[in-house]
Amino acid sequence: MTKLLASFHNFSDIILSHKEFTNTTLWKCGDDFDFDVLYILEPVKINDKNYSVHKPWFRYFRESFHHKKLIVMGFWDFIDSNYIFLFEENLIIENKTQKAVCNISPENFPLDALDICDKLQLFFNGHEDSSVIDILNQAIMTSTDLKANINNQDYFQLFLQELECLLNRWYKYEDFFIFLPFGYDVINIMSKINKIFQSIKPGNFKNAIGIDNITSTLTEAKNKLEVIDLKYLRGN
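-> structure tokens emitted (236 positions)
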């Protein structure tokens, strides 16, 4: 089985209708990784701008799926075993796919658009303000203080502000994560944080969903986001 990641429906429809893609379906955020080959059609259009998304995908595959093939398709005249130039004369996709290799580095691929890793560093690091990890660390400390002083309104308002700050940043960047292999995990993380926020928003920390698990939920979120940032976006 093969999958195609694409955002331009006119191009993806043409590709999927080709006889060489009869066993290929469009990849969607949250799909299982039950395919042998993933084709990424670049650039990917997000919020009216074109992005290259292959770097985090290659890094993710090198970490978790050594046996699967990842092939970038695009309009840049570039030669590589894992790149398909769609305007190449006498192009035979099957031959290109057979020659592609597993577990390769993405660093030499051309960026035919904006680098999504650079964009998402703004989500993680902020715009000259606190990083996501800093906000989570502060929220973890505040939640611990609040649990020990459950009627303290100063702690409550501070905790509310920290979660709101985190969620407001998420809403600006959530569209970018749906084109990434770890996007579903991040969506789930932020969904849990939003549930905590919505449960205490009426004004009572005692209403919070899973009050005993709030600190552990935030700690888990921080740990997972740190891994995603360092391994797949920074490539460390």
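The helical segments are 9-17, 54-64, 93-99, 116-125, 132-148, 153-177, 183-200, 214-233.
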